[in-house]
Amino acid sequence: MALRLGDTAPDFEADTTEGRIRFHDWLGDAWGVLFSHPADYTPVCTTELGETAKLKHEFDKRNTKVIAVSVDSVEDHKGWSKDIEETQQCTVNFPIIADEHRQVSQLYDMLHPGEGDASTVRSVFLIDPNKKVRMTLTYPKSAGRNFEEILRVIDSIQLTDGYKVATPVNWRDGDDVIIVPTLSDEEAKAHFPDGWKTIKPYLRVTKQPNR
Questions:
Q1: Any idea what DSSP says for residue 175?
Q2: Do 39 and 140 belong together in one domain?
């Protein structure tokens, strides 16, 4: 069964390019992004892992650890990392899980039925410090992911965890936000003393509260 938002992210032990880990222990009190790629030594994946490495400081700012997984061996991961570093001009600065027996792929439903192989699709799982799944994305093997969008969603979820707001379409950090409809106007006054703009009774726009 596919994981749903709010489910506990399955724990597992696995070998990685940075040694053997138990996933929940490795996450600790951080947020986590677990993402799969179909195979080592493939073109789209090479660009994705390079971009992830370049964004490490952005993930660090959000207290978020990143870890990749594919069905290849640690030895293959390490060899391929040299290609990533050469072609993408970066150092692979996060662990890559070896999932030769498809343990993690099956736990997280990353395998694409009917594709004629046992490689993974491009899945993304955002996991919070309570080990709950907060966001999932699935791309076909042919389409590289937008990692700026992953960062945007992390910003949105972390903001709404701390304040009674939601984020509108195409929102980016610093933009105006929406007061959640469950909050009455009287209650909203305590949370948003600088006020808001009422477009409809259910659509109240205010400045981002942590700015």
A1: S
A2: yes
89 Ramachandran zone, left/alpha/beta (phi>0; psi -120 to 50): left
pTM, 2 dp: 0.92
Active site (annotated) includes residue 45: yes
The answer to the question of residue 152 being in a domain is: no
| Maximum alpha-carbon separation in the chain | 60
- Catalytic position from the list 45, 74, 178, 188: 45
pLDDT surpassing 70 at residue 119: no
Q: Which amino acid is at 133?
A: V
Q: What is the pLDDT of residues 99-116, one digit of tens each?
A: 998 899 889 988 766 555
The predicted-structure confidence for 86-95, as pLDDT tens digits, reads as follows 999 999 999 9
For residues 32 and 134, membership in a common domain is answered with yes
Same domain for 182 and 136: no
The two beta strands, 96-98 and 133-139, are: unpaired
Region for 182 from its dihedrals, namely left if φ exceeds 0, alpha if ψ lies in -120 to 50, beta otherwise: alpha
Q: What is the CATH number of the domain that holds 200?
A: 3.30.1020.10
